[in-house]
Amino acid sequence: MNELENEERSWWSRNWKWVVPVGGCFTVILLGIILIGGAFFSFFSAVKSGSGGDEAFELVQNNAKVIEALGEPIEKRTFGSKYNVKYNNGHKTSEATIPIKGPNGEATLTVKTSGSDDDTVYEVFEIYIDETGETIDLRENQLGQGDY
Q1: DSSP code string of 44-58
Q2: Which of 56, 43, 49, 102 is nearest to 75 (CA)?
Q3: Of 17-31, 45-59, 108-122, which has the strongest mean pLDDT?
C-alpha cells in the first residue's frame, strides 16, 4: 500500500468549505455591529456635549452650597441621565438632567439653555436635593451677569 493514502488530511483541508463562508459572514456581521455601535456612540456623545451638562456638572462640583448639602466628592450616578438638544435655524435649545451623588445624599442637576453657541442663556440651572426637597438655584451663584 501507498503511504500517502493512509496519511490523515489536515483540519483545514477537511473543513475549509464551511469555514470560509461562515467566517466571512461572521466577519461582515461583526464589522456591521461595530460600525453601527460606533455611529450610535458618536451621535449620543455629540448630543451629550451639546447639551451643556458636562460644563454645568463641573460648576456644581465647585459650588459651596452643593458641597455643603451633598459633601465631597460629588459624582454622577451611573444611570438616569437625560440629554436633549434641538437646533432650529441656528437657535439651540438644550436640556440636561443628571443625577448626582455625594457622601451625604443624592440630587438631580437640571440645566436648560437656549441661544446660539456664542450667546447661551441659562433658563434653568438648579440642583434638587432628594432627601430634603430643597432646590438650589445656581444661576446667580456661578454665572456671569450676562449669562442669565
Answers
A1: HHHHHHHTTHHHHHH
A2: 102
A3: 17-31
**How many residues in total does the chain contain?**
148
Contact between 129 and 65 under an 8 Å Cβ cutoff? The reply is no
Task: Please give the grid coordinates belonging to residue 1.
Answer: 500500500
**Helices and strands in the chain, H and E counts:** 5, 6
Q: Is 94 exposed, middle or buried (0-12, 13-18, 19+ CB in 10 A)?
A: buried
C-alpha cell of 41? 456612540
Write down the domain spans for the chain: 11-44, 51-147
Start-to-end CA distance of the chain, whole Å, equals 95
Distance (Å, rounded) from C-alpha 117 to C-alpha 54? 15
Identify residue 52 by its one-letter amino acid code. G
pLDDT tens for 51-81 read 677 778 888 888 888 888 888 888 888 787 8
Q: What is the DSSP letter of 66?
A: H
By 3-state DSSP, what share of the chain in percent is helix, strand and coil, each rounded to 5? 45, 30, 25
Name the class of domain 51-147: alpha beta
